[in-house]
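Entry:
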Amino acid sequence: MKSVVLTASWLQASDTQKIMQTLGHDMVRVVGGCVRDALRGVSVTDIDMATSHLPDVVRDKLTAAGFKVIPTGIEHGTVTVVAAERNFEITTLREDIETDGRHAKVSFGQDWQADAARRDFTVNALYADSNGVVYDPLEASGTSSLADLEAGVVRFIGDPDTRIAEDYLRVLRFFRFSTQLQPEAPDAEAIEACARAANQKEGMLALSGERLGQELFKLLSHTTAPHALDLMQQAGLLPFIFPFTPAMDIQNKRLDNLIDIQDTQFFEPDVLLRLAALCPDSKVVIDQLSEKLRLSKKQTKRLKGALDTSCHPVCYMSAREMRRALYVSGREAFIDRCFLTWAMDKKTNNAVQWRALIAMATSWEKPDFPLTGDMMKTAGVPEGPEMGRVSEEVE
């Protein structure tokens, strides 16, 4: 394979270079998603590094250099370095010695090829030094990560069943990555292995709700999410994520349309609203989903508001109707309802009206209700339930 040099502003940034210089240019490399995405021309947010230093040495060297170092997973060889512009995760080269499908016991080493071999997919086993020179350790064993990345192929490293058994979350990660890199033809061997994991059930059922939720949100952040979910349904994986059976012909269409609206109309991607698009309009179901994925109270409340069918926005509603609906539902829930209703609007030429309605709703401020308890008491309304009833009726 020809020599490849990575050119990226984040690699040449002062914090990145200072960390690599402090640890020794031949002892540390950037690795994984940041290399993969930079080579694809995709923006990079998270930077991971691998080093042959032991984690205690990493902590001591970087602390002495003035960095704040947090031992986030030091028993597994990982520390987080807090720098001025971003955080870095730095992990000592590792080999798995034992795994239960969720957690692995590791030994630290000096072997870059062994470290690459324990990773999930070939496209995530690329490294680059401080000069941007890209290393492909798997090439020595007959597999080229660079060739797979160039072809858009996402494959498990080695035996797919073995890789999945080390961490069953890799099943979900496979569909996320494969539909981004090569949506038309995911690796057939990997698809079959994922389906086997679904049939065996135990490993998938052992995954925590927090990890499932985090991975689902990552998947929903991409425009390829509907295709990934279709493939996951075919593989029998959705029951491990959702406590209900999504009507994918309806819900996934709503999600697909919502993503198209957010993408073409220049709205920010909103993963929680995209999750709402997949859910039936049921508060009971939302409570079950919240418990399953360990969602926060704030997230659960927003999902319920987005799926509250008592709010019926239409793109041609009057300003008075809009203000009333906003007052009853609240601004966030009303706007979410607008997006979800827009996503199922068969009239594609209504975009201007929907945008105008959402813009007006965004600038709306809830007025203060002027009737106070003292005013009602002065008017002779008895305190207690009657006062509450009168207040609600007047409002």
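The first strand starts at residue 28 and ends at 31.
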